[in-house]
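[Meeting: bench + compute handoff]

Bench side (C.D.) handed over the final construct sequence. Compute side (W.E.) agreed to return the predicted structure before the next meeting so the bench team could plan truncations. Sequence as handed over:
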Amino acid sequence: MELMSRNDAAFFTPYHDCDPVWFSDDKSVVIYRNGEMRIHFTEPDGSTSVLRYTNDLDAKGLDTDEKLADAEKSGALEFHNNPWFEVVYHDNEEGEVFIGLDEAKRYAERIVAKYSEWQEKV
């Protein structure tokens, strides 16, 4: 699996609400992007703004995981609410939570493989 440079759930937040971003072939396993994003961003001149959506990040030049992490490490960016990915499948409606899509996909693919093996035994 190729790792993405826009892996953080913040890059999958075009609006508030829950949004499916990946399905298994049989749709029994789904990855949702969930949660509200609220990031306080401090400009070089000291002014601050609130970033809520992916296009807000893009407008500030925070368009990769690396740039997002660097801004957070420097103190220019502070998450107050962050979105996440949730892997949901037929007998786990509460889901498993992940921040990165790559990690969520690896988990989802393991669940798909686990249940396909189980189906073969039945």
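W.E. noted at the follow-up: The longest strand covers residues 92-98. C.D. will use this when planning the next construct.
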